[in-house]
Structure formats: C-alpha cells, structure tokens
Amino acid sequence: MLDHLGRTAAEKRMTLGFIGGSLRSAVGYAHFSAATLDSEWTLAAGCFSRDEATNAATGVAYGVEPQRVHADWRAMLEAERGRLDAMAVLTPTPDHAEMVVACLEAGFPVICEKALATTVDEAQRIAAALQRTPGYLAVTYNYSGYPMVREMAAMVASGGIGRVRHYQVEMPQEGFIRTDRAGNRPTPQAWRLQDGAVPTLYLDLAIHLHHLLSYVLRSQPSEVVVQQASHGWFPQVVDNTNALCRHDDGIEGHVWFSKSALGFRNGLRLRIYGTEGALEWLQSEPEVLHVARADGRREIVDRAGWTEVAQQSRYGRFKAGHPAGFVEAFANLYRDVADEVRALQQGRREASGEVFGVELALQGLAFLEAMQASAAARQWVRVAEQGGAP
C-alpha cells in the first residue's frame, strides 16, 4: 500500500544531521520545516551554533535529544558516523568547502545550502573529494522545487513555446537600503558584508538565477557583460548588478539582482520568450504560470488547470486555490534527495533530474567569476568551461 507520497511501508524515514542551521540563522528553520514536512526525514543530531546557549536552545526547539546536540562539528562527525543517513551543511558559504569535504571523507551523504563554495577552486576541491570517496552531494537550489517552475521547465523542454530566443530573470530585494519605522538601518550577518573574489551578492542571489536558467532552459550563459554598483548602506559590498548574457545555442538574456531595490522583499521573476509563445512566473504568485501564445492568446495556468507536472499528487498537500509556498518548494527538493539517498543505500545511483550537485555548482561559480571579471574589465567575458563529478 502506498501513502500520499507514493511510498511503501518499507521506505523508512531518513535520519539527518545539521551543521549550522540554528534558530538564529537565516536558513535553519526553513530547512528543518522542509525536511520534516512530509515525514521524509527526522532531524536526529546537530551542531547548530558555536554559541552554547543557542546550540542547546535550537536542539530543544527541533526536538533533538540533548546527547546528540554537539558542541563541535568535527566531533559530531565522529560521534554520528554510521548513525545518520545524511548530513546537511547550513553554515555561511565561506565555511562550506572545509565542512563538505570533511563530511564526505567521514562517509556521510551531504546536503549543502547554496552556494556550494565561494570560488571555482573551492568547488574543485569538493569535486576531488567526491571522486576519491563513494560520496553523494546535493546542493539546495530550492526555487526549482515550486511545481509551476517545474511545469515551466517541462513546457520549454517539450517545445511548448517553440525555440527559446531570449529571457529576463531577476531577483531584486531591498534589505541593504531600507530601514525600520524608527529609521534604523539593517544589521546583516557579518559575512554578508565582505566581498571576496566573487561578491557575496553573487553567491547569495545570482547563483539561484544561474541554476534556474540551467534548469528551465537546459542551457547556460557562455558570455557575459556586467555592470555592478553599491547603492545601499554598505558601500564596501556590491548590492546591485545587471548582466547581459549570450548562450552558444543562440539564446540571449538579461539578468538583474539587487539588495538595494526598495519595494521588493524578494522579487524573483522569470520571463522566457520563444518563437511560438512566452512564459512568466513570479515567486509572489507561486501557483500561477502566465502563458502567451503567438496568435495573441494569453492564459493563466495553475495546479487545477491543464498541467503535466504540477497536477501530480505529490504537490497536492493543499487543494488548488490554497497556495503552497517557499517551505513546500523546499520540501519537494528534500523528497527528491531522500529518493536518491534511498537508492544509493540499495547500491544504485538514480538521478531524479531535480537534484543538482558539484557539476552545476562548478558551472555556476564559473559564471559568477566571469561576471566579476567582466565588471572589472568593462567588457564581454567568456565563461570558463567546467567539469566535475556527478
């Protein structure tokens, strides 16, 4: 007998550990909620924070037994060896490479918050660790977990809008320029206020846009020209970027991402234009896909309409008309990861097509490095080709 997710009784709930992801982190509670939403995972252990009080309080809030709340992440790897089905790395991006490599070498399948690393060189170290270990790595680009984004990708792949010619993707936010009612400026995490070889804005936002382009178009930018600036309260970091992109298959597009765009909490939007139609999706209207046809027709499609992907029962936690959102999209990805890890435990490597690892991370970081090089040189720059472990 199958449950509402299509699982048999023999498919047990998976056990998960967190490195980072405390109640005070930007992503921790979202990961906890998503991983446990469909009873796919149980959070069984964690080293959530370097702060002792925060670490303990997070363990209580997440329902982790006190003896499995660890003060040191390296000690946790040793203590939990063989007791967990996967380890999630949810720390700031600059810490990822060291932790991911250590987890792989300790034998844990790894789920890592984006961006996987800060540079191509760091990601290549992770790729090398995957090659020398029987490892597994999934990077959480959660926006492709939205059913209507998956529908969009399926429509493009089936030729539903003809040949794709161009696109506009954007992710404007206001966090680095707005104030509260009293006029107080924001206080971002310290690591977000330092730019390295690749601006933190790129690692935070542009890596999502690169993933979505790759996911929806099955094509990636090969050349880029970029203008970037700082318009908000923190002049030491880039907070607004515009990029023009060319693809070797003839597609061209515009990418905009910002943290100094007043009025946008998170204005993620994808517009894809083909020879026979166009598609538009906004995260603020997650259950709706806008479709335009070459003969002038315009349609609004949702989960209750004529869809190929979004109508699947796994996406029907709520009836159409009761919008699913960010956590549900994350949960869809955690379901996909669980399926792949179960297969791995049975001696099979099965790719769902919805989970991405080091190869896409390398390609994304090469794109970010090309953008930074273009901004510095004020000219078109070719994106370096990358290889990596699956």
List the defining traits of the structure above.
five-stranded parallel beta sheet, 390 residues, disordered N terminus, nine-stranded mixed beta sheet, alpha/beta
What does this structure look like?
The protein is 31% helix and 21% strand. The protein has helices spanning 28-37, 52-62, 73-79, 96-105, 120-132, 147-157, 200-217, 326-345, 358-377; strands at 14-20, 41-47, 86-90, 110-113, 137-140, 164-172, 223-229, 240-246, 252-258, 269-274, 277-282, 289-293, 298-301, 381-382. Mean pLDDT is 94; it is low at 1-5. α1 (28-37) packs across α8 (326-345), α5 (120-132) packs antiparallel against α9 (358-377) and α7 packs across α9. It is of the alpha/beta class and 390 residues long. The chain starts with 13 loop residues before the first strand and ends in an 8-residue tail after the last strand. A hairpin with a 6-residue loop joins β11 (277-282) and β12. The strands form 2 sheets. A 9-stranded mixed sheet has the order 13-12-11-10-6-9-8-7-14. It is globular, with a radius of gyration of 21 Å.
